Amino acid sequence: MKHKVESEKPWLKDGDSEETNKKARLAYEALLTVTARIPETEEYKNFSREVKEIAKKEFDFDYKQEEVNTFVTAFHEAVLLYSLALNETLAEGYSVSNGSIIIQKMWNRTFDGITGKVTIDGNGDRDADYSILDLNPNTGVFEVVANYIGTEKQVVDEPGKSFHWAGGRKHPPPDTPKCGYDKSKCPKKNGVSEITVVLSVIVVCLILGSAAIYRHYRREAQLASMTWKIKWEEIALSTVSKKMRPGSKLSLTRVSLTVS
């Protein structure tokens, strides 16, 4: 059983500093609490008051500001369900020790309890009601923003209340993280592929450059090895050749070459 302040402001600790409580409150803004629904009927209020009186009178326990735990009402309704099933079993002539018949009487039935209509399904599970609590960023108090109705299997928004999603979101976060819970959908980029591509380009450029340089020097070497190659300055034309008109077709035998 928790103190009312602990239930409404679980982020607030008297022994912690203001800065620590502020950080805790910011973290709690991302929290949604699902708890058993606390009815607001007169029957439940009367039952809660009687429980507090009995606890004080017979066990010297003072609830003070604490709320009566919903498990107390659940236990009360469980005993009520058993008594109803037991009475029906005895009325049909079965023994009180016939557990299978008693269980059959408990399943697939609805009865009136402290919290309202109590429904038990075919598996023996109760279609319980739950409340969803969200932290109000203005007051710092957890408030009921929606209720799950077990018999109807639907969520009903609390009038005048709304969810406050952390991080400034306007909508609820996705069901699964973008990268998955184990980040398998977003493999880490270690840069190996990028480095491989860059190195490959550099190697190709070096090979092509080396081939071009080798071809150039090889051609120069081949030209340099030609023994018949004569430098232009070593050739002097005769007067006849100098007087030739451009385009004249003279036989090379008529041109006297003087090699100095």
From TrEMBL:
Keyword Chloroplast annotated: no
TM annotation in the entry: 195-214
Main location: membrane
The keyword Nuclease is annotated on this UniProt entry: no
Localisation per UniProt entry: Membrane
GO biological process, one term: receptor guanylyl cyclase signaling pathway
Protein name as annotated: Receptor-type guanylate cyclase gcy-28
